[in-house]
Structures are given as C-alpha cells and as structure tokens.
Amino acid sequence: MDQALEPAAEDQIELLFPIPLMRSPNLLSQELREAAIGAIRADKVETNLRSEQLFHTTIANPLDSNLFREIAMLATPKLVDFGYMLFGERLNWTVKEMWTNMLEPGGSQAMHSHANSFISGVFYLTPSHPGSRTVFIRPPGGFEYSFRHHTRSAAMGPFNAGKYMLPEADPGDLVLFPSYLYHEVPRNQGDQRITIAFNAIPDRLDCWGYEIKFST
C-alpha cells in the first residue's frame, strides 16, 4: 500500500469483500508453450469485431484437442484452489471452453467480461509489453459513491483506483479471475502477443439444499 494511504499505527483496516485474482507463475513449460504457439499460428483465425489487429481461434471444447486438454489439466488444480476462495469448498471444476488471442502491434482488446462461467483464466504464451498487460477494471455500478477524486497528487490504492494492471505477465504464467470482472488489453506496444483464454464451471453449487448442477 502507498505510504500516503497507510493508517495510523493504532487503527485497523479490514479488506471488506475483496475481489481475488491469482497468478501462477511459469505453469506452462517452454516445450508446451512452443507447441501451443506453433499450433495457434497454423490454425484458422477470426478477426475481432472491434480491432483489426486482434485475432482469435474458434472457441473449442478442450476435450477436442490433445494440446488444449493437456493445458486444461494443468489449470484444473489451480481452479480448485481459486474456487475455494470464491465458494469456501473444493469443488470439481471443468474447463468448458478455450480459445486463443493473437494481438498484433497496434491492436487492443476492448473492455469485456465472460458470460455463463464462474472462473476465467489466461495463459500467457509470449512476452507482453509492460504497457500492454491485461488491465482489470472496477465493476461498473454497484453501491459506491458517484464522486471521484483523481488528481496528479492523489495517491492511488486498492480502495480508490478504477483500474489495475498486472505487474507481471510472463510466458507460461496463468492468471485466474472471477468471470464477471471486466478487463481489457491496451494498445499493443510490443511484438505479437499470444494468449490462451478459457472459462470454467463447477459441477454444482449448493445453498442450504437448493442445489444447481452444471454440465458442459
């Protein structure tokens, strides 16, 4: 926390209802990253509707691809851990869909969130320029005041900042976040940036006997 935002020694600050985000460094081996990059560059891609420098492969079930299946298996234990923070129990998680993103120099990805899932994730396959890492955005709406105090001298911290940029996004890293959390990628100031994104769901959610089951 910025020193200017630190409370007095006798005061206590509680992090009320924080939004978790987990980064698992170097989860993908170099061999698997290179195999994925080669397969992605050889696959059929579609142009993003909002950026002509952003391309995607078709959304696919990981079970339909040996490569995606292997990557999804690496993510599953992390999903169980992250899901425990969201729901307080180690549930059975399934990666229900995966796709790839190729962001060319000068391209960007508009603000968006992921529907019909609970945890979303991004595997980084290539280096990201420091100014072009994934940016997470404070959820619009909610119960906050409608006023802001953003000046050149104001200290930004987790309680007043509107955006959060990943401090690191190295090849092989996995980042998990709640699917409702809006995010974007600023204009790519570096080389081609390749990532694999996915959505995951638990097998069930139970609220005192009112159970909902999910399937892919």
Provide the gyration radius in Å: 19 Å
Q: CATH class, anyone?
A: Mainly Beta
For the largest sheet, list the strands in their spatial order. 1-9-6-11-4-3-2
**Corresponding CATH superfamily:** q2cbj1_9rhob like domain
Concise description?
The protein has helices at residues 30-42, 66-87; strands spanning 22-24, 45-47, 54-57, 93-103, 109-112, 119-124, 135-137, 163-165, 174-178, 183-185, 193-202, 204-207, 210-213. It is an alpha+beta fold.
Structure commentary:
It comes from Bradyrhizobium campsiandrae. InterPro entries: CHP02466. The chain is of the alpha+beta class and 216 residues long. The chain has one domain (18-142, 151-203): Jelly Rolls. The protein has helices spanning 30-42, 66-87; strands at 22-24, 45-47, 54-57, 93-103, 109-112, 119-124, 135-137, 163-165, 174-178, 183-185, 193-202, 204-207, 210-213. The strands form three sheets. A seven-stranded antiparallel β-sheet has the order 1-9-6-11-4-3-2. Strands 5-10-7-8 form a four-stranded antiparallel β-sheet, with no helix packed on it. Strands 12-13 form a two-stranded antiparallel ribbon. A hairpin with a 2-residue loop joins strand 12 and strand 13 (210-213). The radius of gyration is 19 Å and the shape is globular. The model has no long low-confidence stretch (mean pLDDT 91).
Itemize the secondary structure elements and their pairings.
Blueprint: E1 22-24, H1 30-42, E2 45-47, E3 54-57, H2 66-87, E4 93-103, E5 109-112, E6 119-124, E7 135-137, E8 163-165, E9 174-178, E10 183-185, E11 193-202, E12 204-207, E13 210-213
Antiparallel strand pairs: 1-9, 2-3, 3-4, 4-11, 5-10, 6-9, 6-11, 7-8, 7-10, 12-13
